[in-house]
Amino acid sequence: MTKDSFDHLREARAGVYSDAHPPIINLIWKFLEVFVAGQFGMLVLQSGLLLAGLYAMFRATFTARRAAWWAAGVFVFPPVLTVMAVIWKDCSMAGLLAVGIACLLSSRRGVRITGLAALCSATALRYNAFGATLPIVVLLFEWRPGMRWLRRYALSTAAWLVVTVAAFGLNAALTDKPMHYWHSSLAVYDIVGTLAFVDEDLSDAELRAELAGTELLIDHDLHATIRTIYSPRDFLAISRDPARTLWNLPLNGYVPAPRSQRDAIGRAWWHTVTSHPWAYARHRLSVTGELLDLGSHHALGAVPKRDLSLPAYAVELGLATGWSTTQLELTDGMHWLSRHTPLFVPWVYLVLTLVLLPLAWRERDVLAILLSGLVMESSLLFLAHSRDYRYSHWMVITTTIGSIVLATRRYRAARPQAIVAVGLVGLLGLLGLLGMCACHGKPEHKDFGPRFFSGASRVQCSKGLDRDHEWKHEALAASLERARDQGVVLHTFGHAPKLDLGEYVADFDWAAANGVPMVTFRELAAGRTGAGWAFTIDDDEVDTWYGWRDELRAHHVKVTFFVTRYDRFTAAQKQELHELAADGHDIEAHGKAHENAVAYVAAHGLDGYLRDEVRPSKDVLVADGYAPVAFAYPYGAHTAAIDGALMQELALVRTTGGEWCLK
Hints:
By secondary structure, the chain is mainly α. It is 58% helix and 6% strand.
């Protein structure tokens, strides 16, 4: 289960139906809990629906036994199984879509109408599932056999409209806590993304006018801040960045943004998108490219991690918080596959779908299945607000089903020479896939570059690993190999709201097994030499850091936490930080109020920066029992003069990539 799953279960038990997620999922939880408490009922439901639907679909092509084997094979296919093993609305949606397709293929009208009901339920489970049901209903639904094509498709199109309207109407009727989530997520994301791609710089006055009434939290350097904070991978930084939050908008709870603010955001969205259509298109294409993992042979974060950031929350809900050795080994195996093969890369399935579509032109059922995955994936061009493999899960399923059924039917109908040709093409395709897998492990990718490895300087430059930093995972692997081969320390940094620790588990394990131990800045200041990885985390998200504690221990990871705003920590948060330090993690200074050093020095002088920002940050840690030896510049901003002043009081300073890595 993930946070979404926990929220659905909690709301179901409390009888709350918010619309941050489709509220029908809460109703399903509530019904299942009548029979069995916890997640097991939902796991059985989503798994049973998909297996039943797969079997019924395959029965149109195979004998009963072979259909059962194919259904089981697709279900345990790693790119399918990894999502189905999590309690997500996406999984129940996939199961209902499969059942709906199978029912529409029936010769009995009552079964076909049951299929429409299943597809209506699937549509209600995801706000963009209407894209999946459109080709299915239009191409497969028949009121009676033998109808002329115009009447048949007019009726099936009307049936799809009824299914879609009924699904949205059902969720609207269930909702008792409207959150107007579009305004807090996709709308502001599109505004920021569009403005980030506008070629010319817009003045603060222009942007204040364009965003009037949206209650923007910053009042200067607006366009520069928007460009900096934007990421095509995720929208969360817009309202959660610890230093540059643009809007205070609710993403949790049950109190929506004020009506006036929502209206202003709606007006700003329309004005921004229509005024800069090319920039909007570039933004949406960039998000889609990240979603499809274009240019990559592996998928970041495709395999859900096995950790709980709030284990007490799970205990409160009466859920298990541990895993068996077998589960952990299977998860490690899935992580290996996602890193070393293209099995989890969405663009691979998109390309396969496009290749198969012309071949399926006369196979209406296969055509409908393939188009279902393609159209739903295409809807994400306008609707996705983050990068998440499960958004492509249905396309993975439809491509897999279509490939199996189409290949089997073509093989059965082919002449001997055609069979040979198909076999040769298949062999070449397999060799190409194996070549991609093999090449993935070769050191063909460039590393991060020499500036991100320890040198003789006391100013260390660190590479950002957040989701909004531009880098390829292969470059991290190549950088770790360079650290091992040259006996140097790789420097990376990140922030808790934007970094998924689970994405680096395989890298932690590889580093530990290949002579690249984790090192802290305290160890570097003491003269530690040799290969290593200085994995640093910045700012003040101590609750999240503490939630990583078990996973850090399990993989023998030592982190340097560069802490800012320590004077604002609660007593409980300070205790959490002390426990992290007791585990061997390093606690260092990151500024009293996270001020930009260059800007602050320009306004208040170098002595003012040392007096107001650096020394208080260090002194408050010393007063609480720490002994900081390093300072990380907020935003990486520094000059040689500032470095010289700080190094009179500290052993090391750390900056970040880009213009601030002075060499």
